[in-house]
Amino acid sequence: MLEGIFGNKTAEMVLLHIYHYGEIHASAIAEDYQVSKTPILNQLERFENASILLSKQVGKSRVYSLNKKSPYYKPIFEILKISYESIPLEKRVQLFKARRRPRRKGKPIL
Fold first, then answer.
1. Banded pLDDT at 66 (limits 50, 70, 90)
2. CATH 1.10.10.10: does it fit domain 3-90?
């Protein structure tokens, strides 16, 4: 669905994962979609060069997130929100099943 707006399927995968997780590294996206890491890294770099994404080094990994200071942040965030919410819940659970952060102590498991 976002492929038509952003030009390719990799862009859609990258943006939806960043929307869902808040921040993520290329290996996690590639692993979830079972694709090579190279196209994911290329797309992340394109978005970073366009000031849509920011990256930071965390240990040995480079972690990417949306650039909230970008003039494109609000419209892209709204498009991602609409697109994300239009994905059926079963498909969302399948796409984003991996936990990327530890569970807060005492938080109930749903």
1. very high
2. yes
